Input
Amino acid sequence: MSPALNLKRLFALGLAAVVALSAVAYFTMSGADATPKVAASGTTTATTAAAAKTYKLPPVNGKVDYQLGGAYTPPAGTKIVTRDRTAKIAKGAYNICYVNAFQVQPGEEKWWKKNHPGLLLKDSSGDYVVDEDWDELMLDTSTAAKRKQLAAIVGKWFTGCATKGYQAVEPDNLDSYTRSGKLLTKANAVAFTKLLAARAHTAGLAIGQKNTVELGTQGKKAGLDFAVTEECGRYSECGDYTKVYGNHVIVIEYTKSAFTKTCNAYGSKLSVVRRDVDVSPKGSKGYVYQAC
Output
């Protein structure tokens, strides 16, 4: 898979204070899993013992903005906006909620160590495993019991996103197993993804596959609805995503050449945006935004 730029490392410090203040509100265990069922083209229904909720996928080829570095008024004509789960939605757009679902978001380490140390991945020496790419602790998805507990925690965040008005979630670090020193496997990630997809659908949210091109069709089979991919144009991987999700693919490029290449090949079919690697708010130094 293509190595994503150090996007999260660049904005993590800026978000850490906000995340720390909001952590208590989101870190509550919740409900059971659900099984999604297709209701109609572009619209699906998640069925539980309690209720059934309908969710919609992002508009195909809609103008998109990726605002993980801070929320701001989207450019005119924007149809899709991604923001961190601590942020309010962008009114008038289809909103995707970013959730760090497979690792510990900076600023939340103390909460996890105090409340759920057994759900953090440890090596044979009993030390916490740190993802050196992002400098984040990893969640332990190695057993069914742990995956169920983690899904309850992350599922509560999904519910929080839905309550704020988000229409989809983007669970990040699905590929963390590739950086776990072989302590986690792709099968672990797919099994956890299945639980997360059920929780998202129960909350009335669509759920996207973040990067991890090596999943092939396994992500969709696990319940994922669309894809969010960083630099698939740069690494000639966009076609691998469209084979699985059709045109329900959102592409973020960080270089001018890759953006031009991607727009020429997929600009009339997919949602493609160029952002700066800091995903800076509009008006700040370094801000870059282009859409096709």
